[in-house]
Structures are given as C-alpha cells and as structure tokens.
Design brief:
The protein is an alpha/beta fold. The protein contains 17 helices and 17 strands. The protein starts with a strand and ends in a 38-residue tail after the last helix.
Length: 561
C-alpha cells in the first residue's frame, strides 16, 4: 500500500457554472475517496483548480462581450463557491491563469515543454489549419464546429467529438464553420509543434496492460483500442493569445500559446507546488508527491477526458521523464437530465438557467448538500451514462435518507433521550439479535471499505444503506417500547445496541454524507474522531449523548422546481 495518495480532479473550464453532471463525473467521487482515505488514517492531498486558458475561455469572452481574464475570474469564484456549498473540500483550488497561481503555473508549463522539446519529441511542422477570413484569425480546434468524420454527429468540436468521444482531425470535419462568426471556415497554412505520440505506443501499451484488473474496463479497453488504431501526432501549440506563451526562441513561435490540454494537467503539478508553499514547505516539496514511488497518484475525470489522461498525459510524462505515471485513472460517464419526461443532455444553451441541475441554483433553494451527494452517488455513471431525475431525487430522499437512515437515528436517539436520560444504557442483557446487528454493521463497513478501495462508490454506499435498513427492521422487531416497563434490562440492551449502530452508521456515512455524519456524531456526544473508519471501542455505558435532531428533511413534490 502506498504511503500517501495524491488525488486530482479534472480542472473545470472557468467559463460556465457547475452542473450535476460535472459533480457526479469527477468531483464528488474524488472528494468521497479522499474523505475515506483520511478516515482510514492515510495521508492524502486533494488537488484541483480552474482551467483558465485556451479557446473555451476566449469563446465565452467573445459571446459575453467580456475579456478572458474577467470570464475566468468570475467563473473561478462561482465554481469555488459551488464546490464549498457541496462540501467538496480541496487542499488547494488553484487556477491556471488566476493571479495567485499564474506565474508559477506558466513556469512549470514552459519548463515542461522545454524538456520535451530538448528530448526531441516535438515535430515542428508547417501545416494546414482552418481559418476564419471574417474574424481574420486561425481557428484552433475548439473554435470549429462541423460534422464528425467518425460518427456523423452534426455539432462536433474540432478536437474531440462529444458524441463518440473520438479524437478529431479538424481538417476532416464536414461542413466546418467558425465558432466565432458562424461562417464557413477555409484552409490556410501555419506552423505548430506536434507531440509524437506514436513514439510512445509500445511503452503506453505495456503500462496500460499492467493495469488489467485494477482500472475500470471501460477506461482500459478504450485506451488500448486507441493505441491499436495508432496514435497520431498531436499539435501542442495554438494560434491564440490567451494562454501560456510557447517558450521557444523561434520566430514561428511568436504569438502562439501552449494547447490548453497540454498546460491544464501540468496544473496538477503547479497547484501541488503552490499548496506546499502555502504550507510553508517550499515549492520543491511537491516532488515528494510527484516523484516518490511511495505516492499513489489518482486522477478522477469525466469520460471526455479519457483520451488525454490515459494516453496523452502519460506520454507527456514519459517524454518529460521527471515524474511518476498515474497509479489510477478513474473515469465516469456523462449524466443526462430528465425534464418533462424527456431525457436530454445538460448544456448551457438548452437547460433552463434556473434548473436545479446547476449547483448554484440547487444551493439557492436551501436544499441539503448531502441529499444531492447521496442521489448523485446512487446514480453515479461509473460504467454507463445515467440520468438526473428531479422526481426520483425527491422520492429517494424521502424513501431512503428520511425513511430509512434518518428514521432509525431519530427513533433510537429520541428513545434514549426520553427514557435513559440522554445516556447510553447498559447492554449487559444483550441478546443474539443485538450481537448479530452490530456484527452486520461491522461487516457492512468492511465491505464498503473494499468498495471504496476499488472505486465502486455506488456499491459502497449501498452497503451502508443496507445496514440502515437492517437497523430499522431490528428496531421494529426488538420493540423496546414494549419491553420498557416489563423488562427494562432487555430494553436497555436494545437501545444500547441502537446507539452503537448509529455510531457505525456515522462512520459509514462520513465519506459520502459528511455534513450528516458530523451532525450524527454530535447527537452521539462525540467529535469527528468518532468518524474514523477503523471501528473504535464502543461508547462507554453512561456516555452522555447530545440532543437528538432530525437528520434529513423531507422534500415536498416540486421542491426542485
């Protein structure tokens, strides 16, 4: 087992608000995993930040009649608030063009580029590129729209198709148009530097095959399939002004910047260095996380980032030769939206601005962040695309969080407060049923832990909720209200068992529902040390419990709009 784990979540473009698909795809599972590692006493760092450079930001600035700096700054702050509102807690949330991080990030990115260039892995090539004569500028990949030459999707971007996720040669797009003016694009010549991915096909194949049985088959099979088709050279420079300048003393490099997907993953490095500096350890302390084999590096991404994180980024690391390759790439599929009975893609252009799928709108309604965390985990698109359904969200909140988990906690702790002076009673008269329930809880924690170690978050949460349902059945079967007067020792044993079951539930909830887990710990009269994953000694007899409270609120129909 690694001595420490560095966890990254894909850098979100700072040109839009976060929606539930973003959260379910990368950020929530990453946060859950980090919380689990720390609950197990393992050292972990959680690194993320906004992707402020490149074409997406320029397009948004053009559309909103603003500047790239204003767009990036605005959405960086919006996204940081949304993450905090959902209790997704990074150790550092940087920004590739954020004033606090840009200088360090540019230095890291340019040094990275220079080392690959010195190794001879770039090809400088005069090439043809699409051009917008009305705007008077070359069109980087994401400035182009057209018909995908792989699957025929009519709104494919010039770098990667959103429909089939294949990499695209923009010159092969059918009917290409400029995303700036909407006018047909034409072909002209320019110069760029191409990463020779083909030079890494064999080492990439060997590395990926070593991950058999460890990575999700969807990720591994897709990446190996791309190698089988042959990896093309990939341009790592762009004809735009917003980004990291190409660091070459070459007239042809003037006015060009690094491709955003080249510098973005280097943000994982630069943000780690910035975090180390913020901790007073100096920027060079980042090497303990990136160059030490005792560190496991885990990337959480959405399916559209699979090509880059499983192939291009590892090839860049192989070419640069200073850092470890990722230990794990955890990719989730997209999440769609069911609205008005129709399943559709979540998008800035077609999804209503006040829809609760936008995290900002959800939080504005004052809804429990843990309720959303719960539903998104139950719907986690781990192996296939899933759907966010507002009606199902309400049903699962009321039928599972409220009726199963919250109900058991409320019944147990209210009973203890009313009839045992708010203290844990003596379990001296414990029955086989009492011992069986706690054994079931311990086994559920062990099973959930195995699921989390294997990045099966849905399955891990189901282990916890299966125990919660068993607890409700136990409470009804033991009927402590019936034995309270006739057999007080038996009643005490039952409620003591319920208090211990609540303790086990709080531990299991911790990575998934951190706010509710802390509230339950308070109700148990304990601090967050109670939420350590290793099962501690039982609470002592007579332990003073905190005041009971409603753990989850019931939602009325239409609560999500």
């Amino acid at each position: 087992m690694a001595q420490r784990t560095l966890v990254t979540a894909a850098l979100p473009y700072s040109n839009n608000r976060l929606h539930v698909g973003h959260v379910a795809g990368a950020y929530l599972p990453a946060d859950t995993y980090v919380r689990y590692l720390r609950a197990c006493g393992r050292e972990a760092a959680f690194i993320c930040g906004s992707d402020d450079n490149g074409v997406a930001i320029e397009i948004s600035a053009l559309q909103e009649q603003s500047t790239p700096a204003q767009i990036a700054g605005h959405y960086h702050d919006c996204q940081a608030r949304d993450f905090a509102g959902l209790r997704i807690e990074f150790d550092v949330y940087g920004g590739t063009h954020h004033p606090d991080y840009v200088e360090l990030h540019e230095r890291f990115s340019q040094d990275f580029f220079r080392r690959i260039h010195a190794g001879g892995y770039f090809t400088k090539r005069r090439t043809r590129q699409l051009y917008d004569p009305q705007a008077g500028r070359f069109l980087p990949d994401r400035f182009v729209r057209g018909v995908c030459h792989h699957c025929g999707f009519e709104r494919a971007s010039g770098d990667q198709c959103d429909q089939c996720t294949q990499m695209i040669d923009p010159l092969l797009l059918k009917n290409p148009v400029s995303a700036i003016t909407g006018r047909p694009a034409e072909v002209r010549e320019t110069t760029h530097w191409y990463l020779r991915l083909g030079a890494f096909e064999e080492p990439l194949r060997a590395w990926l095959e070593s991950k058999q049985g460890q990575w999700r088959p969807t990720v591994l099979n897709f990446a190996l399939g791309q190698i089988k088709q042959g990896l093309p050279e990939r341009s790592m420079t762009r004809d735009i002004t917003w980004g990291v300048p190409v660091p070459l003393d070459d007239p042809d490099a003037a006015g060009k910047v690094l491709y955003v997907w080249f510098d973005a993953p280097i943000g994982y490095l630069s943000f780690t260095a910035a975090w180390c500096a913020q901790q007073g350890r100096g920027t060079d302390a980042y090497r303990a996380w990136w160059s030490d084999p005792a560190t496991a590096i885990v990337h959480f991404i959405g399916e559209d980032n699979t090509v880059f994180h499983a192939l291009t980024w590892p090839a860049m690391l192989m070419a640069e030769q200073q850092y470890q390759l990722p230990t794990q790439v955890v990719a989730n599929n997209f999440m769609n939206l069911r609205l008005g009975g129709e399943i559709r893609k979540i998008s800035k252009s077609s999804t209503p601005a006040d829809a609760p799928v936008w995290v900002e709108e959800y939080l504005k309604r004052g809804l429990d962040p843990d309720a959303l965390r719960y539903y998104l985990t139950t719907q986690a698109p781990e192996a296939a695309r899933t759907t966010f359904d507002p009606e199902e969200f309400i049903a699962r909140n009321n039928g599972e969080l409220v009726a199963a988990l919250g109900n058991f906690v409320n019944r147990s702790l209210t009973f203890a407060a009313r009839y045992f002076d708010g203290r844990k009673p003596d379990a001296a008269a414990a029955t086989e049923a009492d011992r069986a329930l706690l054994a079931r809880g311990t086994a559920a924690l062990a099973a959930a832990g195995r699921c989390l170690d294997e990045f099966r978050f849905r399955a891990g949460l189901e282990e916890v909720m299966g125990f919660a349902r068993a607890c409700n059945e136990y409470f009804s079967a033991r009927a402590p209200w019936a034995s309270r007067k006739d057999n007080p020792a038996d009643c005490a044993a039952a409620i003591a068992t319920c208090v211990e079951a609540c303790r086990l539930l709080a531990i299991g909830m911790g990575p998934y529902l951190p706010g509710a887990a802390r509230r339950l710990a308070n109700m148990l009269g304990a601090d967050e040390r109670l939420l350590r994953w290793q099962v501690p000694e039982p609470l002592p007899v007579g332990h003073r419990l905190g005041p009971p409270a409603i753990l989850f609120a019931k939602l009325e129909p239409g609560a999500l709009g």
